[in-house]
Amino acid sequence: MYKPFRRILIVLLLVGTASCSAERRVSASDSVVGSRSDEEPSAAFRTWLGRTWELARLGEKDIPAPVTRSHEQRPGRHPGPGSRPTIRFTSEAPGSLSDGKPGFLSAGGWSFCNGYGTTYALGPGDQLRFRGFESTLVGCDGPDSLETRFFRALASTRRFAFDSGALHLIAEDGSRLIFVAAPEGAK
What we know:
Elements (H helix, E strand, L loop, with lengths): L1 H19 L20 H6 L5 E7 L2 E2 L23 E4 L15 E6 L4 E8 L5 E8 L10 H11 E7 L2 E6 L4 E6 L6
Antiparallel strand pairs: 1-2, 1-3, 1-9, 3-4, 4-5, 5-6, 7-8, 8-9
């Protein structure tokens, strides 16, 4: 009887927190792991909606951080050569990508060469699925380019985990995309 009451209290606290701020601002030193060990994974995921994440690892390949960052990045423009792919999850309903599927929300960012958008749905526990990728059409290196592998890994995602300030998107075979929180102001 105590557990259902605790879960209801957690949900009420999360709803109250979410209504106070549409987008949570955090610094790079903030921990990404939920503040309570008994917090539902999907509730922890929702606390980070609006945060931009940079790809740090694609399977077994490390993706180095750019040496310098452009301070004059314009909205709608690719961040430039050497930048890491990004992803940003929102609580917004999708436009053309939804295919009428209830429960899907919008996500998107920059890949190695292109801007992209997709929809995602959280399932019970730590389940996460993507559906309906759309991207710009800038050519990349070929059929097994980092770009292609990045999109294939996103499409294969089945669950997520937070660990030591990183977001892990995990495929059924255990392969991972590992993202770290992007610096404040990154899109």
